[in-house]
Amino acid sequence: MSIDRVRLFDVTGRMALEEIFDPQSACTELDVRALPDGMYFYEIWSEGRVARAGKVFKVE
Known about the structure:
Blueprint: E1 5-9, E2 15-20, E3 38-46, E4 49-58
Antiparallel strand pairs: 1-2, 1-3, 3-4
């Protein structure tokens, strides 16, 4: 699966982060250091649609 973009939303539904990637890139990284600890919902987009969605926790 080639990843086009990743979006993170906080628990209120506000978009906290959006990263757009080169679909040809072999490596995908998100810099979440600026985000506060907590639970986030994610969407992984591929070929113009949501390919995966779920939740993730950020804890330092």
